Amino acid sequence: MKDLEFTSTLSNEEIEANFKNIDFFSGIMAGLEEALAYEKGTAKADTIARKLSLPDVNVADERKKLNMTQKSFASILGVSKRTVESWETGKSIPSPTARNLIFLISQDHSLVEKLRNHI
């Protein structure tokens, strides 16, 4: 791992003093109160909740259309073979990102080659 380097106009003492003034507990409590308000339906107006509309994909069907093994399909998607197996058997569902990628691949099979070239 590469060391992270940065420059600051603050001295080490000033950085430490600023860090000591951070009230982590208050921040955690504020987050919990916001989550509770959301759950109760009384969240503040500035809280935004949105529902994602994700494409419906059948992982096994899409993989088979491409004549790919679970292992090779997993490699293209950046997941494990076990994850693809889990999706195909219904034990779990693909993440929103994976669903979108599978959908895009289903619409344009040439993406498989493009993705292979970047693995």
Q: What top-tier CATH class of the domain at 59-116 fits best?
A: Mainly Alpha
Low-confidence stretches are: none
CATH topology of the domain at 59-116: 434 Repressor (Amino-terminal Domain)
Which architecture of the domain at 59-116 does the CATH hierarchy give at level 2?
A: Orthogonal Bundle
SSE string, helices as H and strands as E: HHHHHHH
Q: What name goes with the CATH superfamily of the domain at 59-116?
A: lambda repressor-like DNA-binding domains
**Beta-strand segment tally:** 0
- Please tell me what the overall shape is: extended
Helix tally equals 7
Q: What's the alpha carbon Rg, rounded to whole Å?
A: 23 Å
**Sheet/helix structural class:** mainly alpha
Mean of all residue-level pLDDT scores: 83
Biggest sheet, open or closed, and with what strands and sense?
none
In whole angstroms, the N-to-C terminal distance is: 21 Å
* Percent in strands: under 5%
Can you walk through the features of this model?
This protein has helices spanning 12-20, 24-40, 59-65, 70-77, 81-89, 96-107, 110-116. The chain is mainly α and 119 residues long. It has a domain at 59-116: 434 Repressor (Amino-terminal Domain). α4 (70-77) packs across α5. The relative contact order is 0.09.
